[in-house]
Design a protein that fits this description.
Blueprint lengths: L1 H24 L9 H4 L1 H7 L11 H10 L2 H21 L1
Helix pairs in contact: 1-4, 1-5
């Protein structure tokens, strides 16, 4: 029973920290001088970033990790905790 509570808490924390990280990373769309350094996935997909429409949602996480790392760190910690609880329950 305790593992279900831990797993549920970790899952909720993972979802909320992912949304927070994505929101904070969306600031990248308003900073064209950062597009060259923080749009790895967009450059792989599109080749060159020339406007806001070319920016991939995955690049929001890169930008958030570089400049506002609280939510990305929470994402990693809660993801590891959720995976740990999930593996423990399966055994």
């Amino acid at each position: 029973m305790m593992n279900i509570v831990k797993g549920s808490t970790a899952l909720v924390m993972l979802v909320l920290s992912t949304l927070g990280s994505w929101y904070e990373g969306s600031e990248l769309r308003n900073k064209p001088w950062e597009w060259e350094y923080s749009t790895f996935f967009s450059r792989v997909i599109n080749g060159q970033v020339t406007g806001q429409a070319d920016i991939s949602s995955l690049d929001h996480f890169i930008y958030a990790a570089k400049f506002k790392p609280l939510f990305p760190i929470l994402m990693v910690v809660s993801g590891i905790l959720f995976a740990d609880v999930f593996i423990f329950i399966r055994r």
